[in-house]
Amino acid sequence: MKGTMQYSVALTHSLHEEAKKHLLRLDGQEDLCFALWYPSQGKKRFTALLHQLILPKKEDRIVEGNVSFLPCYYERAVAEAIKANAGLAFIHSHPGPGWQNMSFDDIKAETNLAPSSKGATGLPLVGLTLGTDGTWSARFWIKSKPKSYKKQWCSNVRVVGSQLAVSYADHLNPRPRFRKELARTISAWGEKKQAELARLRVGIVGAGSVGSVVAEALARMGIKQITLIDFDKVEYINLDRLLHATKIDALLHRSKVSVLAQALRKSATAEKFHVDKFKRSVYEEEGYRAALDCDVLFSCVDRPLGRSILNFIAYAHLIPVVDGGVRVETTKEGELKRADWRAHIVSPERRCLECLKQYDPGLVQTEKEGYFDDPKYIQGLVDNPLQRNENVFAFGLSAASLEVLQMLMMVIAPMGISNAGSQLYHFVPGILDVFDITKCDENCLYPGLTAKGDCTGIKITGLQNKRKMWIVYRCINSLKSKNGRDYAAGR
C-alpha cells in the first residue's frame, strides 16, 4: 500500500441511507459513529468496503458544539472489529455540502485513533466525513514511520446500489475542462454528469465483438481511464466482427487488448486519456486484481467461469458489472431462425448473474478442470451455447449499445431513473422485453458476500489441472435436462 497506491472507499446504498439518517440531524448538529470495513486489494488501488455501522448509544457521545465520543464507545467498536476480523472506520458529519476538508480537531481525533486501531485490527484507520448534500470524503491513516501516521486522501467514495453515485477528490482527480470535442455529448446531460462519467475508471473484460465496441463508445464519450482485460489474440476467423482488427493483426497474432488499446488512444476525446491493457484472463490473479481497480466493469465474456468471477466481484467488492451478450440460432438449412441480445447490471440491490441464468454454476468447476479446452467435451454437450459461435458485427454492435445505455442510466439517472431492468431484444420479430431484476432468489449465495472483499474466505482465481469425470458426468446430465439461457458475449 505504498508508493503510487491509490485509495478509495465503497459502500452500499442501504448503508449510505442508514448513515445519512444518523449523521444528518434535523437540528443541524454534527454527529459521529464507527463502522467496520473489509479490504479490497487491486493492482493499483486499495479500497475499504464499509460493511456495518456501529451506531452509538445515548451515553456513548456528547452532542454539543463539536461532537465527541467517550472511551467506552471506542472500546466497543474496537471489540466489534476484532470479533469480525475487520478494519475500523471513524465517521462524522460536517455542516456543509461537497467534499469536506479536515479541521484541526478532526485531524487530532483521527491521528489519536490511528495507532490503537491499527494495532488492534491490523488494518489502517479509515476516516470519513459526510456533507449535508450526501457527499462523502475519505482518507486512510497509513503508518509512515514508528509512532507516526500519515493521511492519504481517497481518490473517490462510491455508493453502489440501483444507482452508482461517486464523490471525487478534485485535487487528486480534477474535474475535466470543457472541450469542444465533447460539446455535443455535454449538451445531452450537462457538465456535472459528464464530470461524473469522465472520471470513472471503467474496465472491459473481454475485448471481442461486444467489448471492442463498448470500449470505442466509452473512449469517444470522454471516459479518461479504461482498463482492458483479455487473454486472446486476433485471428482471421473473427475479423468480420472485431472492431479495429486487421489482417495484419491476425497475421502477426497480436493480442486483442494491444490492437484495441492502440485504436482507443487515437479516438479518445478526454484530455488526459489513459488505457491499461492486460493480456490475462479475469480468473488469473493479475487480471483479477486489475479488475478490482475499476469503478465499473463490463462483462464481455462467453464462458461461465469468467461470469461467475465477475458476479462475485459485483457483490463482494461492490463494483457494478454490466453484462449481456448475443444468442443466435439457425435452421437446419443454415438460415437465420432467431437472434436475441440482452443487457443488465448486477450489483447489490439488483439480481445476480446466476439468478438471471446467465451461466450454469455446474459448469464453472468443469471449466476450472480444463474441459472447455477439450473439443471432444464441447462436442458432447447437448444444445448448449458453448457450442455456438454464430455472431455477426451488427448483433454485437446492438448488444454493446444496450450495455452502454445500461451504464449511462445507472450513472446519469435521467429523471431519477437509474435501473432500466434486464433488457432482452428479439431480432425476430423485433420486440424488446424488460424484466424486473431487483432481488436474487431466496437461497442465493451472493447477497451474503456483499462488501466482504478479500475476506470472504473464498479463493476465486486459478484453474485446476485434475480431471474428475464425475463432475463432467453430472454437468452433461444437467445440460440434458435444462434449456440453456446463457448469452455469449462473442469473441
Features of the shown structure:
eight-stranded mixed beta sheet; alpha/beta; 24% strand; 491 residues; 13 helices; nine-stranded mixed beta sheet; 31% helix; 19 strands
Condensed summary:
The protein is of the alpha/beta class. It has 13 helices and 19 strands.
Largest sheet: 9 strands, mixed
Uncertain parts: 376-382, 464-485
Widest sheet, order of strands: 9-8-7-6-2-3-1-10-11
Mean pLDDT: 89
- Can you give the helix content as a percent range? 25-40%
Distance between the termini: 36 Å
β content, as a range? 15-25%
Structural class: alpha/beta
- Record field, number of beta strands: 19
Shape: globular
Instruction: Please tally the helical runs, counting DSSP H or I stretches of 4 or more residues.
Output: 13
Radius of gyration: 24 Å
Walk me through the structure:
The structure is a single chain. It is built from 13 helices and 19 strands. Helices cover 31% and strands 24% of the residues. It has 491 residues and is α/β, with parallel strands linked by helices. Helix 9 (304-316) links the parallel strand 15 and strand 16. The strands form three sheets. Strands 9-8-7-6-2-3-1-10-11 form a nine-stranded mixed sheet. It is globular, with a radius of gyration of 24 Å.
